[in-house]
Amino acid sequence: MKKSFAVFLRRNLAFANLAIVTNLEYRLNYFIDVLVQPILTTGIEILLWIAVFKGAKSTTIAGFSENSYLSYALWSAFFSRIVTSWMYEFRMIEEVSSGTINSLIVRPMTFYEYYLSQLMGYKFVTTIISLIVPVVASLFFDLPTILSRVPLATLLAFYYLILVHTISFIVSSMAFHFTKISSMTVAKNLLMWILTGELFPLDILPPFWKSIVIGLPFASGVFVPVAYITGRVGIESMYSGFISVTIGIIVLNAIGAYMWKKGIDSYVGTGA
Amino acid sequence: MKYVIETENLSRVYKTYQKPEGLKNSIKGIWERKYDSKVALAPTSLKIESGKIIGLVGANGAGKTTLLKILSGLVTPSSGQATVLGYKPWERKNDFLRQMSILLGQKNQLWWDISPVDSYALLARIYDLDIAATRKKVDELATMLDCKHVLMTQLRRLSLGERMKMEIIGALLHDPKILFLDEPTIGLDIVAQQNIRNFLTNYVKEKEPTVILTSHYMDDIATLADSLLLISKGNIVYQGTVDQFVANTNSELAHDEKVDFEEVIRRFLETESRIR
After folding, report:
1. What ipTM was predicted for this assembly?
2. B50 phi and psi, to 5 degrees?
3. A103 with B107: Cβ contact below 8 A
4. Which of A15, A94, A202, B159 is the most exposed, fewest CB within 10 Å of its CB?
5. Quick count: other Cβ atoms within 10 Å of Cβ A127?
6. What is the residue range of A40's domain?
7. Environment class of residue A202 by beta-carbon count within 10 Å: exposed (0-12), middle (13-18) or buried (19+)?
8. Best of A103, A264, A266 to disrupt the B interface by mutation (most B CBs within 10 Å)?
9. What is the pLDDT of residues B56-83, one digit of tens each?
10. Residues on chain A touching B92 (C-beta within 8 angstroms)
11. Strand partners, B38
């Protein structure tokens, strides 16, 4: 048992390593992804909130100051980049629809772990580099930020990433039946844009919608960690976040396992 | 006699969407689709002994790749039973997958964006192999295949022949007990084909794995195979030794006619195809 866990661990560290090695083969693409994109996203979000406050001609919106929103925008851009996996989801779908999955399913490993470890490995390294942007910006502009809360908030986002990956696994399982399914990723990401709190802080929603949306595990992707860092919520929201993500992972994994079994049984080994 | 592969009434039927020509039928296909069932493999019962090299031969679409895919666990059969090394292949148990390897000549098995040495290091982790021993083995196999100079070049930058050599090394790293080779020499020039044939001949002599080999090049089959499995329209039409097959078929020819192995196979399959 101990040996098989050690084998599992070594194998998955190798997958994480593969993600980094593969991305470093294309240096320019990698550095644009880890540095240029976060700077641009952060800039756009900050400009958007500056424009909103100028138009509103008020010092607060829903009880929060302009600096509070700017800080939210800064950190939501950072967390939303951690918890999106469209790049890997497209790849997973492509593996199934093109038949390149053949080379993976005949090896002693699972498709789920192979991509989860790659996703984690890639996100871990890019997060360390991308973290420079919000830390420097929040210190430079003196935005409300509790830096000591960053590690726990980041941990929640990485835990949430398992849920994100499980959704990608479900979508890619659908490709066994429907072949081309990438539009599902786009539609789902638009929905997640709102449900995670990337577009705006979820606590400015009307009370009824706020209680529903914050109760869903998706809020733990962006809203909960960002609100925790910027002082909008306390540690109890983080605990609730960990619990709702755990429930989400269990439920979605059960659905994913069922859909994978149905999909792989109907698979025709495309292209070989 | 020890059998490593046993199948009983193993079959696979593929269901495919039939789309008649035109925009009108594309729109109609949104709510109403017609599917056609095609028998890719008719109920097949086989027994394959350990350590043999089986040449699986048939025309395009005859069902040989489907049989290979089922036996390697890529595809689940529609009906029937099969055991390979005592396992149901489509359950894809790790203990089974560790003992077999499949090489698909038309598909990359290694990672496209990294160098072969990085791929082999990853495979060592996947198959839980000793890293130092794996490096040594890569070195030995690359020497035999005369391709040491490209081990550190990104796979996508290699020629077809070099890539195939890299794929062969990757398929053999974990010393598989059973090896499925689907057209390992496809698209290669005559010299490269000969190199790979020589390499495989030496390898199977030394390691004695059971090999199921498909190829459209009859030289591959004639050089490597002990036994033949001829397949036509999803049906196994001959199972026996190569020598026996050639002897039987030659006895049916006119005395003054001389044909080579490839011609014998071609004529046999054409006849079978007409009958079925």
Report:
1. 0.86
2. -70, 140
3. yes
4. B159
5. 18
6. 2-270
7. buried
8. A103
9. 988 888 888 899 999 999 999 999 999 9
10. 105-106
11. B14
